[in-house]
Amino acid sequence: MPQHVDQQIVSFLQHKALGIRIDSVRATTAANSGHPTTCLSVADIVAVLLGHVLRYDYNDPMSELNDRFILSKGHAVPVFYAALHQFGLISDEELLSLRKIDSVFEGHPTPRLRFNEAATGSLGQGLSIGLGMAINAQRKKLGYVTYVVLGDGECAEGSVWEAAALAGKNSTPGLVAIIDANRLAQSGESLDAHNIDTYANRWASFGWETLIIDGNDIGMTLQALSFAKTYTQGPVAIIAKTFKGFGLDDWQDKNGYHGKPLTAVEAEAAIAHLNKRFSDATHYSGKQFALAKPAVGRVPSPSVVPHPVAANIAMVMPTGKTMATRKAFGIALAQLTKDVSNVWTVDADVQNSTFTDMAGAAAPERFVQCYIAEQNMISVATGLTQRGNITFAATFAAFFSRCFDQIRMASIGRVPLRLCGSHSGCSIGEDGPSQMGLEDMSMLRAVPRSVVLYPSDGVSAYKLVYAMAAYNDGVSYMKTTRAVTPLLYDAHEVFPIGGCKVLVSSPTDKLCIVAAGITVHEALKAHKLLAEKGIAVSVIDAYSVKPLDATTIIQMANAAGGMILTVEDHYIEGGLGETVAHAVARDGIRVHSLGVHSVMRSGTPEALMALAEIDATAIVQKIEELLSAK
Questions:
Q1: In 126-263, which ranges are continuous DSSP H helix?
Q2: Which of 106, 157, 374, 522 is catalytic?
Q3: Do 83 and 230 lie in a common domain?
């Protein structure tokens, strides 16, 4: 790594690093909260990155040629704000508004500040997001570099190594991980403390070019980052040995100071101490170096998602035939990939079950195989989406539970992820309870601005893929079924988000059944069986669980005696039943629910739905009980 270092640049950056340290103390003291010691350990790295290495047009943060900077150790974000202040990008008033209710300078990075690349702070996710951005640059030949600063403590997170493994396997260029190895975590030493060779060997074993530096030495840091930004053979890991609280003798490398701001008196003494300790950097009268900018770039134009063509749907799903909604999802995604040039698909080794292999065949350059690492898959999708792409991530519905935190953080980051969970519900059959997605609607409903869709047939699934692609206000989720089911709709039918379909009704209805997904078919069977007994009921396909078409459901329920029975292949808690009950609570409508009520087992789909009491027989029995008790 030997490279010439311009001493004037070093002196300039040392001066800025001192200012960043002082501003980090000032901001956290003003807020009376925050993590000043972790800011001090990484201040030199941030000074070099922002002050000299990062090519970024702050007047055009969305330029596709900008280098990207992700602070994965999000609790250190005051150091980023301090750097923005030191380089003249924000005012002193803005800096000192840290953590205030009306400030965009939040306690951990969020996109309320437009310079923040990703919502971080739930540790272990930044590298995967950065990997998604690096893959975008690699596949599109954009040439930007993505820098991710991680803490040593968060390197205990498995998702870090999911990202490291994939980046190493694919020799992903333009991805630089900087590990701030400051030895101390929140309550004691980090997993590997200052065993720097352990870090280096581990990253090297994953196929990364690995450098060891003194991260509190500006000259060495500048050398390492200058090398990393021109290295094109694969990802680079810089193991930076630092000291928590570096520069404050009373706090440096000492446990017990994590997340503790200085008092006003302590801050005044600390700033005086920093100026004395770094006296050579206190004043700088040399050349003022301008921030690096990329070549002239552009903001990618938003993609217009076309309406699905009815002729295409009719061609692959003729009326009167059958198709699993998971397959219809795959067919639609493949067609959408052909229709829209920035649709990407990420997979976790289930492409031949979710049918995302069709999209991969349509555009292999926009398909990313993440292998069996769902947490990494979601954050890679987040990084790709943040770079202006329409990204779909698909796996079994059950496995989204292990990456819910990544989904939650994407929502905080206002990222419009598109997710599809296949093999949902006990109706998948013999694979058993570990493979049954029975919690997914509950999880995804809880995410702010999310959309939760549960199509009952191939046509609705196909159309809703396009609706998801056009939805940009939050995370959208589609729950699909393994079983092959009859087509219910004509190819010309429309399925807006927030709608539902009234499948059958009559003036003499005694009750309204609200179902979604596979239970719509059971409800229709029950309707027929009840009709044979002289009992009329209406059936609604609530394909949009969130937002729910409460207006139509209330109207149909009032016309059917003010009673609703919901039926779902999902745990009762948090699913369709609770959604409907909440929506109609003020209207005096009685809501009863059938859903999965215990841990399931292996068996045929028919036996399992009967055991869960969500099949047609159970629906008929429940309705007869309700009507007899009226």
A1: 126-140, 158-169, 196-205, 218-228
A2: 374
A3: yes
Rounded to 5 degrees, φ, ψ at 416 are -80, 70
Give domain status of residue 264, yes or no: yes
Measured between alpha carbons, how far is 440 from 570 in angstroms, rounded to an integer?
8
Residue with tokens 């979601």: 378
Q: Which one of 419, 451, 486 terminates a domain?
A: 486
Q: Per-residue pLDDT for 2 more than 70?
A: no
Residue carrying structure tokens 């496995």: 399
CB 392 within 8 Å of CB 346: yes
Is the domain of 358 the same as that of 247? no
Element (H, E) at 551: helix 550-558
Assess if residue 58 is contained within a domain.
yes
CA distance 45 to 215: 6
- Tell me the residue range of the domain where 584 lies: 501-628
**What pLDDT digit, counting tens, does each position of 352-367 carry?**
999 999 999 999 999 9
d(CA 505, CA 526): 13
Q: Does 556 lie in the same domain as 458? A: no
374 catalytic? Reply is yes
Kindly report the number of other CB atoms within 10 A of residue 256's CB atom: 10
How far CA 401 is from CA of 177, 238, 458, in Å, comes to 27, 32, 25
Asked if residue 344 and residue 243 are part of one domain, the reply reads: no
On whether residue 304 sits in a domain, the answer given is: no
Axis crossing angle, helix 7-31 with helix 77-86, rounded to the nearest 10: 120
At 206, which CATH number? Answer: 3.40.50.970
Q: What local confidence, expressed as pLDDT, does residue 1 receive? A: 64
Whole-Å CA distances, 246 to 38, 182, 495: 9, 9, 58
Please give the Cα distance from 119 to 415 (Å, whole number): 9
Edge-to-edge strand ranges of the sheet holding 209-214: 68-71, 146-151, 175-181, 236-241, 209-214
Rounded Cα–Cα distance for residues 119 and 109 (Å): 5
Let me know how long the chain is.
630
pLDDT band at 193 (very low <50, low <70, confident <90, very high): very high
